[in-house]
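So, could you explain the following?
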Amino acid sequence: MSGQISRHLQHRFPDSELRIARLERSDPDFRDLCRDYADCARVLEEISRNPAPDLNRIEEYRELKFALEREVLEFLERPSGRVSVFQDDQY
């Protein structure tokens, strides 16, 4: 499951591909966000391909996708939680 869900996000944010993969594996909240984003992107693609698309519904899903992207960016901007191997007083 991991990786398939975040595929849409990795495509949208290619510079953060590794961070997205790590967060998806380690953070259940981020994994849920990836799932929500993938579902939203899939539905948006489906309704956009309709020969007579519902423009209001398309706009709603575009807004939802944009809001989910903002949430993703908030996760990506958080410190990674990694600890340096060097102590402050060594250098």
Q: What stands out?
A: The chain has four helices and no strands. Residues 23 and 49 are 31 Å apart (CA to CA).
